[in-house]
Specification:
Distance between the termini: 40 Å
Strand content: under 5%
Helix content: over 70%
Number of helices: 3
Order of helices and strands: HHH
Largest sheet: none
Number of domains: 1
Oligomer: single chain
Length: 65
């Protein structure tokens, strides 16, 4: 199964959102959006949705500082 993610986005897989830079977080949010629409299973889609929400929350938290 081929992935839609770029090489940069693939490198972010497995990395904690709290350890990512702001640019990496925005790239990860884009990756989550792509993958959420691409995967077929509900469990996989939910996982990508949760990951996107986590990244969005981290981005908001950093913008408030």
């Amino acid at each position: 199964m081929n992935s839609l993610l770029t090489k940069q986005q693939e490198k972010l897989r497995g990395k904690k959102v709290s350890d990512m830079t702001i640019l990496e977080i925005t790239a990860w949010i884009e990756a989550c959006d792509k993958m959420e629409n691409w995967v077929k299973g509900n469990k996989a889609r939910r996982s990508w949705t949760q990951s996107r929400h986590e990244a969005e929350n981290e981005l908001i938290k950093r913008e408030k500082k």
